[in-house]
Amino acid sequence: MRPDACIGVLLAELHFPASRSLKEKRAPLTSLRDVAHNRFRVSFSEVGLQDVWQRARVLIVLAASSLQQARERLDDIDRYLHGQDFEVTRVLIKTTDTVDTLWDIDS
Question: Chain-wide mean pLDDT for the chain?
């Protein structure tokens, strides 16, 4: 039996031009984290540029029951990011075909 479970990963670099301090950068990141958890049901972490006032690198990870569902959910998140007040300077999206590409489940 071949499992259909897939993993999707989105890495985004964000720019906050109005931010003048790390504290000012935290507010939109906290809001984004809350939306990621509550609306999209994904894991969210700031993974880079934590000490920079106007930029952030965030990682969003999700589990889905199919490759198509993973891609659709990542596309939804990407559209959401581009609709916010901050600037999205780069987005990288990756999915696994199925989780059995990570492990040899059938052995």
Answer: 88
Nearest alpha-carbon partner for 69 in 4, 10, 12, 11: 4
Q: What is the CATH number of the domain that holds 86?
A: 3.30.70.1120
Contacts of 52 (CB under 8 A, 6+ apart): none
The b-or-e profile of 45-60 (16+ CB within 10 A means b, else e) is ebeebeeeebbbbbbb
103: in domain: no
Tens digit of each residue's pLDDT (9 = 90 or more) over 26-45: 999 999 999 999 999 999 99
Asked if the structure places residue 80 within a domain, the reply is yes
Return the C-alpha torsion angle 37, 80, 49, 26, nearest 10: -60
Confirm whether pTM is higher than 0.90. no
In angstroms, the CA 34 to CA 32 distance is 5
Query: With left for phi above 0 and alpha for psi between -120 and 50, is residue 12 left, alpha or beta?
Result: beta
